[in-house]
Amino acid sequence: MIVLHLTSCPIGLRGDLTKWLMEISAGVFVGRVSARIREKLWERVRLLCKNGRAIMVYSAANEQGLNFRIHGDTWEPIDFDGLKLMLRPSASRLKQTHTPKTGFSNAAKYRKARQTQHQKSDVSLNRDSKSYVVLDIETTGLNPQTDEIIEIGVIKIKDGQKVDTFNTLVFTEKSISSKITEITGITQAQIDTSGIPLSEALAETVVFIGSLPIVCHNANFDNSFVKAACQNQNIQYNPKIIDTLDLARKIIKGLPNYKLQTLAKHLSIHQSNPHRSISDCETTWQLYEKLINLQQDQK
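Now predict its structure.
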């Protein structure tokens, strides 16, 4: 189920939308369409809305049971501990920005992503840093050139404490195989219901990371996928990377392998839901902190 509200948009756009949705009041549309059709409709709305305003609310498989998109408005969707909320800008904030914001359109995210990337050259990689993000992705396979990202998870750590979380499922061009569903628990139905376009997911991820260094396990895998996807979407991505796999191999000797699950078991780190991005981020965060402590003890 989706509800779409348009304000000050061209009449032609409203007429176009009635091919898929029912207009129950001036500029208010409701209907049931697939997730892919919904995303195509939203892209069309953003393209043809011009200086108008658009708000879409739709059913989603999350704690709130809904999600929303905003275009051409000063209110912004934000993530607060996994809940999607609306940020209403204060008068002072609007004055500082000089021009109204247009929500989280792909273009706005891309501009912000470019700005944050210019700041990254000033960031020095410090393995004892207490401020960083932890990144993990799930994919349809092992090849970043032919396989696709299906989930992105990032947690933000400041002064040793988790302060924010970003997590999203991502649309794929191809159907998810039963093998991937068996490994991750992610189904095609979940992707169709709650997934967002790759360009949007990457832009939000880059903005969320900002100028912080990234901690991840087996960084060559995660980073290669994200980097290849960003290149395809013309999004700048060149972060500082801390790889807990490399750290573990240097600090802990004699393990049969250095997979995240093996290290977690060795260091008594609880894993709530392996092979899901946020769960693996939590595990990697705990692993990193323990590795740093072990490294300090060995000095």
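The chain has two domains: 2-104, 112-298.
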